[in-house]
Batch of 2 targets.
Target 1
Amino acid sequence: MCIHMHVGEMDTRWRGAMQQQAADFRAKGFAVQFTVEEGEPHVVEALNGAGAVRLFKDMEEARPCRSF
């Protein structure tokens, strides 16, 4: 299973928790892409509107990782 995680650079409290979660997922064998979004707070606006293309790209990249 592939997991893509995005967190705002300025959201230091949440970023630490997400980094730990990513490490836990990796320890369980998951493929994890962890991205810190520069200059963003807790709500990552860079992934709205035209930036949403990146989320769809993440989903397409994760497609081969699915196991049924």
Note: Residues 12-27 form the longest helix (16 residues).
Target 2
Amino acid sequence: MRLTRRSFMFGSAGGTAALRAVGALPLTQPSKTRLVLLGTAGGPTPKKSRAAPAQVIIANGVAYVVDCGNGVARQLILAGVPLGSLRHVFLTHHHSDHDADYGTLLQLAWASGLRSRVDTWGPPPLARITELFFEMSAPDLKVREADEGRPPLAPLVYPHELNANGPVMQDESLKVRCAVVSHPLVERAFAYRFDATDRSIVISGDTTRSANLIELARGANVLVHEALYLPAVDKIAGSDSAASRLRKHLLESHTPIEQVGKIAAEAGVKTLVLSHFVPAETPPVPDEVWLAGAKKHFDGQVIVGKDLMEI
């Protein structure tokens, strides 16, 4: 089974949002760039009230997925986004809540009728991860090729490895740039900016306060940023022998909600969307608390993200 590898290394470089619940919305808005929050939970374990981290940008009928937490394919279907419209996948980093269903999304899109090229983007070793997924899935893929007349999947997928700040890709609908952000112990983590003719959208990924992210988000219409509620850290970490390490990770790798507001203010964004909530549900943090924290330093619009919310 053939896998085409392409590795791109880039040199260092330096409103009111419309909201509505999504449910089987057709791709019939070619003039509007849509953003749907597919999953808004933070952390690797399944949650009852929120799906794992993922979002999709839809421009001119093409789906650009950012992160692939568990269940991303089903969330796309619930959002009314055909899996066959997938053309690009962007991974912010290699943590399981962000990439667990990377290969599965490709496989399920293919099983749903995908016949077009898909480019995937993210930190190394993305090409090797892609190759290993196809190797692991070979028994299923070969049977479906034979029984269902499907073309081989691997030649449709082109992984691109990113290593630094800079341009990622550009097509007729979007220009995409990335910036390295701070997520300790992860070798490389990225935020992404998507510039369309009607608006610009930035996805933070997992990060502490990042000067690179602030610069990337400068003047953006929408910033989707992760959020940490500091008073809940001890509850999340627990009291076992690993608690101190988990607490250290949470504090060093994520952004307290008040800092998120500062970042949005410094970047001069119009709308701040909170997502990747830590904690996502235990202990529960009311929306009013997230809003109050973000608004402490940011006077623009703040949205507490929900699964399947379109912005």
Note: The first helix runs from residue 72 to 78.
